[in-house]
């Protein structure tokens, strides 16, 4: 039996999620020198999380994350190849070498830190429970019997799952756009989402239809790499530190979120 056949059989036996974790250490090491030699860097990012990740009129990746990804590529003198990913598949894309890095609104959590290596934070997101104005939801205890939508495998999914009491009906959708539509159409009573997604919803419905009910969590977001890539981590951290100090990241954050980049360290 060949090594390939053995690994394929193991993957089938373990299941995709377990296999990705099991074989992640076999991913080849990568340095900035490797990327410069290749002449381009492939970066995964969400395109359904405005204004961090979205698409422009030509359906090309846009938003704060896209600008950060392009700034990083420019800083290293290579072409940026931006690949759209989803909340559930972004870490698997990284661990299976489909992308070199993730600049994908990935919140830093202990669970994710077991799978990927995080840079210093380059952004932050405030996650809220967003629901109908006037509804009797003032805190997590009030969610019993409430239908709450979240994007599957997202920070808000984790936050809602942790905060919600027994009896909360959590409905998981493929992405923020689907959760947003579920709220607008009345399929759910509230959703866990970032304040930026909440602002997008507010623009689409009559004034005062929905409101922020309470804050779930404020999360720092970082650039993610495969474990063991020490050279890459050092250079990404240098990029974040330098462009925080010179104001470039703040300039981009202001461009997309109309506020200053939060203090992240």
**Secondary structure category:** alpha/beta
Please report the distance between the alpha carbons of the first and last residues: 51 Å
What is the CATH architecture annotation of the largest domain?
A: 3-Layer(aba) Sandwich
Write down the overall mean pLDDT: 88
Strand content: 25-35%
- Briefly note the CATH topology name of the largest domain: D-Maltodextrin-Binding Protein, domain 2
- Shape type: elongated
Order of helices and strands: HHHEEEHEHEHEEHEHEHEHH
Q: How many individual domains?
A: 2
Overall description:
The protein is an alpha/beta fold and 265 residues long. It folds into two domains: 3-123 and 222-257, D-Maltodextrin-Binding Protein, domain 2, CATH 3.40.190.10; 126-218, D-Maltodextrin-Binding Protein, domain 2. The protein has helices at residues 3-14, 16-23, 32-38, 64-76, 90-95, 110-113, 155-163, 176-185, 195-204, 230-245, 248-257; strands at residues 40-46, 54-55, 61-62, 79-85, 101-102, 117-132, 147-151, 169-173, 190-194, 210-225. Strands 8-7-9-6-10 form a five-stranded mixed β-sheet, with helices on both faces. The protein has a three-stranded parallel β-sheet with strand order 4-1-5. Helix 1 packs across helix 2 (16-23). The model is unreliable at 1-27 (pLDDT under 50).
Write a concise synopsis of the structure shown.
The protein has 265 residues and is an alpha/beta fold. It has eleven helices and ten strands.
What brief labels describe this structure?
2 domains, 265 residues, alpha/beta, elongated, 40% helix, D-Maltodextrin-Binding Protein, domain 2, 11 helices, single chain
